[in-house]
């Protein structure tokens, strides 16, 4: 198994992203439409935060329905901003970080996604799914 392969070989390069001015409804819509669980928040190509589906679920779960049983997620989302919900202190890796090192970071910090940053700009994202897919495919070769 090739453990020194860089994450650039498996990362997503066409990254969906949010800005601080986007709404939480936009974040949820992007995640659901694209079947993803993490979105980087960027300003001028510089990563300023990450938001996950779990972040959205955490604020919307308790108030998911009103007294009449109607969904009120968007009302809850209107009470918060991306900046209030996102993780601000974001760990990141470079595109030259090995897949094995990324896997170690996922285990050590219990992350599920890591932004890939080169020259101070977001260039990709790698997830635990990418890592698992890589190791499963390596076992079939």
UniProtKB/TrEMBL annotation:
PROSITE patterns linked to this entry: CBS
InterPro entries the record matches: CBS_dom, CBS_dom_sf, Diverse_CBS-Domain
Residues annotated as domain CBS: 11-67, 86-141
Species in which this protein is naturally found: Salinimicrobium oceani
Gene3D superfamilies: CBS-domain (3.10.580.10)
Domain of life: Bacteria
Protein name: CBS domain-containing protein
Keywords: CBS domain
Signal peptide, first to last residue: none
